[in-house]
Predict the 3D structure of the following.
Amino acid sequence: DVKVTQSSRYLVKRTGEKVFLECVQDMDHENMFWYRQDPGLGLRLIYFSYDVKMKEKGDIPEGYSVSREKKERFSLILESASTNQTSMYLCASSLNEGYGYTFGSGTRLTVV
Amino acid sequence: GESVGLHLPTLSVQEGDNSIINCAYSNSASDYFIWYKQESGKGPQFIIDIRSNMDKRQGQRVTVLLNKTVKHLSLQIAATQPGDSAVYFCAENKGDAGNMLTFGGGTRLMVKP
């Protein structure tokens, strides 16, 4: 089975800190995605990547950046964390067209 | 705009009964649909998928039905168990490059003992 591993289940960070959320997948998937999930708002796409060193903005990229230096790893960066970035962050990966996503178990980030 | 939506935000069923969770989609070009289950504090898990050339697909205790005429997708869970309590999402793939999924808002299934 494909495994998508997010490095932390829970994180607490201070306002203004630079935060790195790491995601690794082990099945050579081309596509990787970062979502945030908030009550009543569902899954919202932050950034995605089709290939190494390639990134595309999703629906809510403001305040975030990403890095994909290796195919298996897709990092989400909060340049200067703010309290409105407190959320559940979900990483996913997939093959190309016509396949579902495999999600990681999520990182619940609290910014205080 | 085009969207994937759900008819019922919360569904409460008795243990042992069958559950039906519905999803409406508006993009007739969508060719692949997926149901995910998300338990509290966890990431979504793939349950079952169906492609647009099929009307029905069965898994273990789950069945997905696709009605392309009315753009409707449903997930049926047989003999619902307490472990089925979760939020269920439908998702559609429009077949665009890059394999982008559009997710529904989710339905919470609550199983009463």
